[in-house]
Amino acid sequence: MKNKVNHHLFVRENKTVSFSDETLEKVRSLIRRYPEGRQKSAILPILHIAQEELGGYLSVDTMDYVASLLNLNPMEVYEVATFYSMFYLETMGKYVLEVCHTGPCAICGGEEVLHHIKDYLHIETGETTPDGMFTLKEVECLGACGNGPSMQINTEFYEHLTSRQVEKVIEDLRQNSEEGSSKGWAEQFS
Amino acid sequence: MGRAILLDKVNIPGIRAFEVYREHGGYKPVDKGLLEMTPAQVQQEVIKSGLRGRGGAGFPTGLKWSFLDRKSGKPRYLVCNADESEPGTFKDRYLMEKLPHLLIEGLILSSYALGVKTCYIYIRGEFKYLVGVLENAIREAKQHSYLGEKILGTDFSLEIYVHPGAGAYICGEETALLESLEGKRGNPRIKPPFPAYKGLYDCPTVVNNVETLAAIAPIVSMGGDAYAKIGSGKSTGTKLISACGNINKPGVYEIEMGLPVEDFIYSEEYCGGISNGRMLKAVIPGGSSVPILPADLILNTAKGQPRLLTYESLSEGEFESGSMLGSGGFIVFDEDACIVRNTWNLTRFYRHESCGQCSPCREGTGWMEKVLYRIEHGKGRMSDINLLVRIAKNIEGNTICPLGDAAAWPVASAIRHFRGEFEFHVEHPEVIKSIKHVAIKME
Amino acid sequence: MFKITIDNIEIQVEEGATILQAARMIGGKVVPPAMCYYTKLMGSGGKCRSCLVKVVKGSAKDPRPISKLVASCSTPVQDGMVVENNISAEVREARKGIVEFLLLNHPLDCPVCDQAGECDLQDLSYSFGMEETNTREPRREYTDVDIGPLIKLHMNRCIHCFRCVLTAEQLTKKRAHGMLYRGDTMEISTFIQTAIDNDFSGNMIDVCPVGALTDKTFRFKSRVWFLNPMDAHRECSKCNGKVTAWMFGNEIYRITGCKDEFGEVEEFICNECRFEKKDINAWVIDGPRKIKRQSVISGNHYEHLKKGSIIHPIEGTTEPQE
């Protein structure tokens, strides 16, 4: 068995990315929440917004854009973005199924649910369905242990899962794929 | 019902809204604190209450506050640790979702006591919807002059901001949290200096858990002495226990410290017994990082005393036969649960969540996971069991932050109490392989 | 001044000094090994844990011992502190464990590694390591990352000390590489395919305690113990021009900064001095450099050489220069 670390080198595509004026206003107000000269503090909320509004993942161009907004060396943004598990560096499906596989969920049937999703969508962890609708991810504890097995789809909680329910959730998303989920990151902040 | 101090208003319809909360006595403690008491008096009540940090370490809150450097001339910060990520723990999420204003009250009173003008709530990114809930509560409080400039006409001003994390268990460690709040990677800082001197932006900072801060308003309201009378010994007050695993009624329960573990597991008021009529096998009583205890040792101490839900009783017997109250994440295993599989599962968690900064944790967590994966999948050797004990010992105490200990204890305790099960896995790989577990590929 | 006792040796140090600094003032065997701490790099230290020591007495005022071992590089001395390093069995045992962790995923490719002979990890393993390995898990392998024509990055050998990141951060205005990802998949990389191009980037090689960052212009040219380190200097507009020239005969094989007995450079040097000036005429050779560190190259066989000697490697003779 090999123990290969597969991080690849990403490419700067030099595409122009930018927030809408409305989002930009929100971003500026987020930066003002931190003291003068400490604008770097706003990096996590802004990366959340960027991921959500600029393509569902953080491309090098998006990260460079965030770096320019915060007046940072792009490397600082790459370092942060690669540290936190909620940031995706590659294109994802429209819906990202993040299934909890940690202890408390696992002993309540989480492993079966995960297995069932793999069978149902014919994908393995880390893969996306050919139609680009669903990406399956295994994640560590979501803080929903009492309601396990649990998963998040695009940061929305789905709890007390059973195999049948999972099918229903997936089908519902397929049918109503136009319907947006609840409030986005930018709207969470007043 | 047991005594409810934190969750007394939890079932009132619409309690998330400021008006409803206010109608039911909400913000009275803030009125009392800000209008009738000096900051020093508020802190004195907290010291008298004997309140201990509810995030896991159980450090006396009043004492932690007294360390805050008030002479530096720099701004002081209060940071609320809402990065609840410990497997088995979901009490803060419940509290913030149901009673956001209880936390806001606690933040106002604590900031008043500490002389803080800016306060951040660092909440884990997965709780995205709670960012909106809290921001809303903050806006409401501001509309009613409980936040902002010159609160209630006093000279005290305060701003609270919600700051989301982005998926890193390590940011629950207070200095990693501060690094993350500064917009950096969540690498824990080397101490000293402690946050009380050099915390956020190199300024004096107090970091407290959500539940700790939520207890401040009730303490101010009833008085520290009255709070200290609740509970048992040095474990004063009430504690939220989040119960999960193989029980009939998983959920968040507020218990008075001193409740016997047996009552908690079996009474209808709380967990309602083991699910499907099975037998109790083991419990991790304080979140996945604390030592696991087999049924006999969780119900009674090695000396035969009933085990109580207090800091002292749960740690009685130290690591030989005891555990810790930790964050109150109470994970129950029934007779069919596989301890080896669960231990492997948890080491995978710690491996994934290690920040990688210091060598024992970065390398050790991965090593333990690989060895346990082999044992669980029928490829173990007898010598692996002692190897695991040795790895755990070499990590424990030698790391920058407590994540190393948290990764080592579950392994060491599982082998201490369930060595036979590990040996069985090694001796009977064919039996282990035949049990239908869903194969999970290694990363 | 504070009084501190390390392995029964007493010394007075300035307030604010760390235990490691105090131990280095005493010198010799009392000095704990340091794989990540680097005096010249602000914020370094505390990470590798190989300098752990036991504090048996906290201070004269508060004599209680510290229950856990502490990192000597980042623990300030208190007045009256008593510390045990080599004399403590607990410290020796813990250090053995640390070596094991550091070697766990290290490829042990010393025979083909240019750092061999002057490698801190080799020294640490000889001094504190175990004779046999206890692991049979596969070792971590990273994909190769090209960081330019001057510096070779072997990520597999990296022990994640952060020294090169701090060097880039503190010597250059805009660093192009950093520590990416986390945990045991943490990686030094440029993330995007950038060559590290800066006048002082070569210093990353000198600060690297292992063979993760080596000099591409010296790659596979020789083993360090076959070369004679000579103090040399030149007029340089970018740095102070004082270097160690590693010579074989009259040929300069490589240039490094001048390192002290703890393996730290005395002054950072520029890339022009390091990579471009391999002609002996570009330098004034001051004489042999004594390598005080404990390692293969510290045999100091070349010490009989006089200033500016000409060496005839094939005949095995030397003659003094005029």
Shape of chain B: globular
Helix segment tally of chain A: 7
The largest sheet of chain A has its strands arranged as: 3-2-4-5
List unreliable stretches of 5+ residues of chain B. 438-443
Cα radius of gyration of chain B in angstroms: 22 Å
Task: Indicate the structural class of chain B.
Answer: alpha/beta
Helix content of chain A: 40-55%
Approximate strand percentage of chain B = 5-15%
Radius of gyration of chain A: 18 Å
Q: What's the main sheet of chain B like?
A: 5 strands, mixed
The average pLDDT value of chain A, as a whole number, equals: 93
Mean pLDDT of chain B: 94
Span between termini of chain A: 50 Å
Q: How would you sum up the global shape of chain A?
A: globular
Descriptive notes:
The complex is a heterotrimer of chains A (190), B (443) and C (322). Chain A has 190 residues and is of the alpha+beta class. In chain A, 42% of the residues lie in helices and 11% in strands. Chain A has helices at 21-31, 43-53, 60-70, 74-83, 103-121, 163-175, 185-188, and strands spanning 3-5, 95-100, 134-139, 151-153, 156-158. The termini of chain A are far apart. Chain B has helices at residues 18-23, 28-36, 39-49, 61-66, 91-98, 100-114, 128-143, 174-181, 210-214, 216-222, 224-229, 261-266, 295-299, 311-315, 318-321, 339-353, 359-376, 382-395, 403-427, 429-434, and strands at 77-82, 118-123, 159-164, 205-209, 231-232, 235-236, 238-245, 251-256, 280-284, 293-294, 329-334. Chain C has three domains: 2-101, Ubiquitin-like (UB roll) (Roll); 104-218, Alpha-Beta Plaits (2-Layer Sandwich), CATH 3.30.70; 224-298, no CATH class. Chain C has helices at residues 19-26, 89-104, 120-128, 163-171, 203-207, 271-276; strands at residues 2-6, 9-13, 52-57, 70-71, 81-84, 140-142, 151-153, 178-180, 187-189, 213-215, 228-233, 242-248, 251-256, 284-288, 310-312, 317-319. By secondary structure, chain C is an alpha+beta fold. The model of chain C has no long low-confidence stretch (mean pLDDT 90). Chain B binds chain C through residues 168, 185, 190, 192, 351-360, 362-367, 370-371, 387, 390, 393-394, 397-400, and chain C through 45-50, 52, 67-69, 71, 74-76, 94, 97-98, 100-102, 104-105, 134-135, 137, 159-160, 162, 179, 181-186.
